[in-house]
Amino acid sequence: MATASGSMRRRLEDQEFTLRVYPGALAEGTIYCPVSARKNTTAAEAIEVLIERLRLERTKCYVLAEVKEFGGEEWILNPGDCPVQRMMLWPRNALENRSGLGSGDDYRFLLREKNLDGSIHYGGSLQMWLRVTEERRRMVERGFLPQPAGSDPPSDLCALPELTERAILESLRARFRQEKIYTYIGSILIVINPFQFLPIYNPKYVKLYDNHTLGKLEPHIYAVADVAYHAMLQRRRNQCIVISGESGSGKTQSTNFLIHHLTALSQKGFASGVEQIILGAGPVLEVRMMD
């Protein structure tokens, strides 16, 4: 019995796993980088492979972040931590996902840059979102400035110089290729289901969209939730958010993101079971249109 157990342990230690690491803005054009690792492979060793494959600057410091909770909470791994051992603690459905080991809906490894002061540098898409000034955005929306040729598609389709079906679809397609799944039409938010995890739902984004006018920042479902929440407080009237779409378009997940943001705003960082109670009632609250 002991011999069989020892043999199984050795096979497990020698078995190779594939870690899917998402570099984000550190390697534009790369969705994820597969890294072969064993049970005792450390985060530092995995990062060394990533630096080599992605041709990253060796003068900078990088860390692996594990995403394992609803909303994209990030947990930084120490250099000596073993990603495979962390991954083995994930739920079975995350490990047995048909698209490959380590690719569950809410479970990921991210590659982050670490600043000299020890803080994590997120960079990339967030700075790109904010690079256009508020004044220029408004001028373009009002038609006083033309949409520059070859520039990023507008975040609000009302800013398109020509409102045709082809122009709208091309704009949505271009934004989707940039992993921008949210687009405004005035105060209406269009959501395109990416069918993959995007790290844009963590506490950093909750704070970013807190108490901002709709349209001031890049479109996001947190912005819609935030406007409804603050309108309720200021006007002292109930607010309603209507979510519609075909089956499989992501209505339930969008509802979860709305609830996540609303409970985060109401609790202001304090732990509470309110969110899980509401999410647990989701199947009861869902209304399905029958033919």
From TrEMBL:
<dbReference type="InterPro" id="IPR001609">
    <property type="entry name" value="Myosin_head_motor_dom-like"/>
</dbReference>
<keyword id="KW-0505">Motor protein</keyword>
<keyword id="KW-0547">Nucleotide-binding</keyword>
<dbReference type="InterPro" id="IPR029071">
    <property type="entry name" value="Ubiquitin-like_domsf"/>
</dbReference>
<dbReference type="GO" id="GO:0016020">
    <property type="term" value="C:membrane"/>
</dbReference>
<keyword id="KW-1133">Transmembrane helix</keyword>
<dbReference type="GO" id="GO:0005884">
    <property type="term" value="C:actin filament"/>
</dbReference>
<dbReference type="GO" id="GO:0045202">
    <property type="term" value="C:synapse"/>
</dbReference>
<dbReference type="Pfam" id="PF00788">
    <property type="entry name" value="RA"/>
</dbReference>
<keyword id="KW-0175">Coiled coil</keyword>
<dbReference type="GO" id="GO:0045198">
    <property type="term" value="P:establishment of epithelial cell apical/basal polarity"/>
</dbReference>
<dbReference type="InterPro" id="IPR027417">
    <property type="entry name" value="P-loop_NTPase"/>
</dbReference>
<keyword id="KW-0067">ATP-binding</keyword>
<dbReference type="GO" id="GO:0044295">
    <property type="term" value="C:axonal growth cone"/>
</dbReference>
<feature type="binding site">
    <location>
        <begin position="245"/>
        <end position="252"/>
    </location>
    <ligand>
        <name>ATP</name>
    </ligand>
</feature>
<dbReference type="InterPro" id="IPR046987">
    <property type="entry name" value="Myo9"/>
</dbReference>
<feature type="domain" description="Myosin motor">
    <location>
        <begin position="152"/>
        <end position="291"/>
    </location>
</feature>
<dbReference type="GO" id="GO:0005096">
    <property type="term" value="F:GTPase activator activity"/>
</dbReference>
<keyword id="KW-0009">Actin-binding</keyword>
<keyword id="KW-0812">Transmembrane</keyword>
<keyword id="KW-0518">Myosin</keyword>
<keyword id="KW-0963">Cytoplasm</keyword>
<protein>
    <submittedName>
        <fullName>(spotted green pufferfish) hypothetical protein</fullName>
    </submittedName>
</protein>
<dbReference type="InterPro" id="IPR036961">
    <property type="entry name" value="Kinesin_motor_dom_sf"/>
</dbReference>
<dbReference type="GO" id="GO:0005524">
    <property type="term" value="F:ATP binding"/>
</dbReference>
<dbReference type="InterPro" id="IPR000159">
    <property type="entry name" value="RA_dom"/>
</dbReference>
<feature type="transmembrane region" description="Helical">
    <location>
        <begin position="181"/>
        <end position="201"/>
    </location>
</feature>
<dbReference type="Pfam" id="PF00063">
    <property type="entry name" value="Myosin_head"/>
</dbReference>
<dbReference type="GO" id="GO:0005737">
    <property type="term" value="C:cytoplasm"/>
</dbReference>
<comment type="similarity">
    <text>Belongs to the TRAFAC class myosin-kinesin ATPase superfamily. Myosin family.</text>
</comment>
<dbReference type="GO" id="GO:0000146">
    <property type="term" value="F:microfilament motor activity"/>
</dbReference>
<keyword id="KW-0770">Synapse</keyword>
<dbReference type="GO" id="GO:0016459">
    <property type="term" value="C:myosin complex"/>
</dbReference>
<dbReference type="GO" id="GO:0051015">
    <property type="term" value="F:actin filament binding"/>
</dbReference>
<feature type="domain" description="Ras-associating">
    <location>
        <begin position="15"/>
        <end position="116"/>
    </location>
</feature>
<keyword id="KW-0472">Membrane</keyword>
<dbReference type="GO" id="GO:0035556">
    <property type="term" value="P:intracellular signal transduction"/>
</dbReference>
